[in-house]
Amino acid sequence: MNDDFDEKVTIKQGAQEIDYGIIRGNRNIVFMKAGLDGGCYGYENKYFKIARELNSRHGCSVISASNPLGYQNDFALEMTFIRKYAQKQMLTDYEVYYFGNSNGAALGLINAYKFPEIKKAVCINGPLTINPHQVIRGLKGFSEEEMYLVYGSKDPSYDMLNLYSELESEKIKIVKIQGADHNFSECPDLFNELPGILLFGDELTCKNVKIRDI
What we know:
Strand 6 (118-124), helix 4 and strand 7 (146-152) form a beta-alpha-beta unit. The protein has a nine-stranded mixed sheet. By secondary structure, it is an alpha/beta fold. The protein has five helices and nine strands; from the N terminus they run E-E-E-H-E-H-E-H-E-H-E-E-H-E.
């Protein structure tokens, strides 16, 4: 397994710079968005490890984006970056699988429905106290394959999930993980496995983990 991304690109957006780590692959593009102040590699290289594992198992392209503190995210610009990557790689009829954590998850909940190229989304521990009306609009508007709202039972937003339960459907699915906190500090291996499990149907290998409603 290579020890770095195939390509790294830095794009200036306003007063901030967004770093993109890219692993080249097929027309299925996994776009990973870090939590607030997170880098494209992630804490202890977790996003890079996830990216390499997904590419190795499924041949997908992976783009991991940083989320600098103080940056006003423009989701449309992120999707433009993905489109340009697909054009450069001559990937026709590409599909995007979104994977966001914390603030990155909230961005997916609010914006994914606006972009039909996003076929699947996994949003982990996105804060539900911020812009709840936009979250509801995003969930109601999502019309593609699947969107997963994943919450650990120790996450601050866990108790708010009942407010969104009526929006569950074949497309919108809530996944509850017993014992997990906001950062999955007690089960980091499970965090690393979730994109493969939910986006590609990989089997769960972590032991002693309780997952409800997958």
